[in-house]
Amino acid sequence: MIKIWHNPRCSKSRESLNLLKENGEEIEVREYLKDAPSKAEIEEILSMLNIAPLALIRKGEAIYKENFKGKELTDEEYIDAMVEYPKLIERPIVIKDNKAVIGRPPSFVMS
Question: Where are the coiled-coil regions (predicted)?
């Protein structure tokens, strides 16, 4: 089973989901803006991705620019920001067999 943290308004997220469907994968879709991940889930994803929290932040989002740009935050504070504002989380995230990948570009989800 493949899980995808999906935002249907995001073209890259839609493209990634379509690639998975075309490949015949069994998919569990989580619209993470409606069903926000917990702190523990974000920490688990970061571990699977093997990246720092800042690398999972969408720096082009207005929320980031207004509240966090130019500030030096700890990893814990970045994680807390993603819990409070899930729109900051880079998307889509595809999870399979305890491994995760960010679908940017969407072809990465097939790796």
Answer: none
